Amino acid sequence: MRLLVTGGAGYIGSVVTAQLVEEGHEVTVLDDLSTGHADAVPAGARFVRGTIGETGTLLGESFTGFDAVLHFAAKSLVGESVERPGLYWSNNLGGTLALLDAMRRAGVGRIVFSSTAATYGEPERTPISETDPTRPTNPYGASKLAVDTALSAFAGLYGLAAVSLRYFNVAGAYGDLRERHTVETHLIPNVLKVALGERESVSLFGTDYPTPDGTCVRDYIHVADLARAHLLALDATAAGAHQIFNLGNGTGFSVKEVIDVCREVTGHEIPVTVGPRRPGDPAVLVASSEKIQRELGWKPVHPALRDIVADAWAAAIGKGSVSA
């Protein structure tokens, strides 16, 4: 198939692009490189620099030749979304609406959307299922939920075939494709930065949660497993339908467990600075992936936390992960 991957120079988008190229698809990556990296675009994929709002203009007549879009381009920092909500609404929702209009005009009828567990907000229960209430607590989650609403509308009005994948914490690496964020907010890469000598310590916020070791529990999924789900979702798109699937490991790991595994994998002490709880941090966030396992046959191949961390560490020190 001829596929467009928006945000394909970013962490997750580049891994999905790599798997698509390996499967023999003809892939074009559209990315403005505001957070992505040109050298992350896999060999074999065509690269076009620009924003999703410019999709129709940048690709012109050639856009009519695409079979589907995999949409990753978005602003994704929760803190920044609170400080600059307009940026998130204009980019995440406004940009996606421009993309959807360009798709409709060009007759491109299939899309897989990179959504987020932030659409759920603070859950009433865990594991979180697709039928649980969506009550985002920040503009990032709210803008992603608004895109889901738009996808449902376009499916009903124009017959769009859409799948949204809501995922939790993504980690690991695929070959030499790894997390390289200018502003890093994720736990595993920040812990590994300490082992690399780029940080003095890692911050641990709260040790008195109602969890086995007192620290927050989160769901981690290997980026290679996550990418594979996008390929399955692409095949599962159905005209006039907007389907939503959660993606997660199904098993939660505490902050302390993550730090201990990073110590084991890297052989570094990794000092910890303990601070108070952060406002709004739920004790446990774990996804139920039963629906996508049941309906699409997906299941994580690399569920072990040690494998996830080991791949991230291997890529960080230039040895490449074992999961490519």
Question: What attributes does this structure have?
Answer:
about 325 residues, about 20% strand, globular, four-stranded mixed beta sheet, seven-stranded parallel beta sheet, alpha/beta, single chain
Overall description:
There is one protein chain. With 324 residues, the chain is of the alpha/beta class. The protein is 37% helix and 19% strand. It has 10 helices and 13 strands. It has helices at 11-22, 55-59, 78-83, 85-106, 139-158, 187-195, 223-236, 255-266, 290-296, 305-316, and strands spanning 2-6, 26-31, 46-49, 68-71, 110-116, 161-167, 169-171, 202-205, 217-222, 242-247, 252-254, 272-275, 284-285. The strands form 3 sheets. The protein has a 7-stranded parallel sheet with strand order 3-2-1-4-5-6-10, with helices on both faces. Strands 7, 9, 11 and 13 form a 4-stranded mixed sheet that branches. α1 (11-22) links the parallel β1 and β2 (26-31). α4 (85-106) runs parallel beside α5 (139-158), α6 packs parallel to α8 and α8 (255-266) packs across α10. The radius of gyration is 19 Å and the shape is globular. The two termini are 22 Å apart. The mean pLDDT is 93.
